[in-house]
């Protein structure tokens, strides 16, 4: 790459830092992307500043052939649009060759899912633990799986939410929106067993009113990270790889298992606190993928059907 190309990249990065307040990591990524493009163009005998739309598309096609992830490709395209838009605005080019580039739409990854038998193992291990910490953990896991709460909603539950004689919880979700979530008998029983021992987790001389208080956190309640670690420790006890278990995975299990057992999307949307039903619809895709796996890998006739197909 020539010095003039280096200078153009540096001027672009200075502009992004000064006028757009781009973060250091973002600037570093822009620099890597542009130097990678410059290397590709140099091998074709072309320059970074003089590349036309065809050369840029050839570069993107080369990235695709290398198996570049869609999210990374989308970021590269964003970099090129910013860079060539900058050259055009500053008068170093008479046109903008990146203006017509189409960004790939990244595929939304399917959530990780635990089977019902795996959740049963987690719950059984939590119920088997004794003492205040064991009863607290059982209450946490039962509540997560019974309600599908976000972990941020779980740790900020007020203690009054559990003291009401009701089969529902009133949850304050994103944006301060309230929703009512049903709570089943096992979760109510776990809370009833935990509540008498709750004072053992309170900071000395203080009661902030949290259902799950903590002596060590600044907020006065259990942190999201602490709940995540407790779940991973429980997963190990249950014989499940800890990487597969998190508060959000338990929320996914709640949603997927409800759908599999006949719940409708609108009700599930309300319980999860999704503003848009399209967010809830991801769980139908999870079920589709799960059913395909069951048929192709676990059905008793799957191997025989495969052999028949191979045999013509």
Give your account of this protein's structure.
The protein has 2 domains: 3-89, DNA polymerase, domain 1; 116-298, Orthogonal Bundle (hpI Integrase, Chain A). The chain is mostly helical and 312 residues long. Strand 1 and strand 2 (178-182) form a beta hairpin. 59% of the residues lie in helices and 3% in strands. Helix 6 packs across helix 11 (247-260). The longest helix is centred in the N-terminal third of the chain and has 20 residues, at 24-43.
Tally of domains: 2
Rg, nearest Å: 27 Å
Question: What is the oligomer described by this structure?
Answer: single chain
**Known CATH architecture of the largest domain:** Orthogonal Bundle
What is the CA-CA span between the terminal residues? 57 Å
Largest beta sheet: strand ordering: 1-2
Number of strands: 2
Number of helices: 15
Q: How does the helix and strand content classify structurally?
A: mainly alpha
The helix/strand series, from N terminus to C terminus, equals: HHHHHHHHEEHHHHHHH
Principal-axes shape call = elongated
The main pleated sheet reads as:
2 strands, antiparallel
**Which segments are poorly predicted (pLDDT under 50) over 5 or more consecutive residues?**
291-299, 301-312
Strand content: under 5%
The whole-number mean of residue pLDDT values reads 82
CATH superfamily of the largest domain: Intergrase catalytic core
Helix content: 55-70%
Q: Determine and state the CATH class of the largest domain.
A: Mainly Alpha
CATH topology of the largest domain: hpI Integrase, Chain A
Subcellular location: Cytoplasm
Subunit structure: Forms a cyclic heterotetrameric complex composed of two molecules of XerC and two molecules of XerD.
Keywords: Cell cycle, Cell division, Chromosome partition, Cytoplasm, DNA integration, DNA recombination, DNA-binding
Family: Belongs to the 'phage' integrase family. XerD subfamily.
């Amino acid at each position: 790459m020539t010095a003039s190309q280096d200078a153009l990249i540096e001027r672009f990065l200075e502009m992004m830092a000064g006028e757009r307040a781009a973060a250091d990591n973002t600037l570093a990524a822009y620099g890597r992307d542009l130097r990678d493009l410059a290397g590709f163009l140099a091998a074709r005998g072309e320059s970074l500043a003089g590349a036309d739309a065809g050369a840029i598309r050839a570069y993107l096609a080369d990235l695709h052939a290398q198996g570049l992830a869609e999210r990374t490709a989308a970021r590269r395209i964003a970099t090129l649009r910013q860079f060539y838009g900058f050259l055009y605005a500053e008068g170093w080019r008479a046109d903008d060759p990146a203006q017509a580039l189409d960004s790939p739409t990244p595929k939304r990854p399917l959530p990780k899912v635990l089977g019902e038998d795996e959740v049963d193992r987690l719950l059984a291990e939590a119920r088997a633990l004794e003492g205040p910490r064991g009863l607290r953990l059982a209450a946490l896991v039962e509540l997560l799986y019974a309600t599908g709460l976000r972990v941020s909603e779980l740790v900020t539950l007020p203690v009054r939410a559990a003291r009401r004689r009701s089969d529902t919880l009133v949850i304050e979700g994103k944006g301060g929106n309230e929703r009512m979530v049903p709570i089943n008998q096992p979760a109510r029983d776990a809370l009833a067993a935990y509540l008498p021992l709750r004072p053992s987790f309170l900071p000395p001389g203080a009661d902030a009113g949290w259902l799950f208080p903590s002596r060590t956190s600044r907020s006065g309640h259990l942190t999201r990270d602490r709940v995540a670690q407790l779940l991973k420790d429980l997963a190990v006890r249950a014989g499940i790889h800890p990487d597969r278990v998190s508060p959000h995975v338990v929320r996914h299990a709640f949603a997927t298992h409800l759908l599999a057992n006949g719940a409708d999307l609108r009700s599930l949307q309300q319980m999860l606190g999704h503003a848009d039903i399209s967010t809830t619809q991801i769980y139908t895709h999870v079920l589709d993928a799960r059913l395909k796996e069951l048929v192709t890998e676990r059905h008793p006739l799957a191997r025989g059907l495969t052999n028949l197909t191979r045999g013509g």
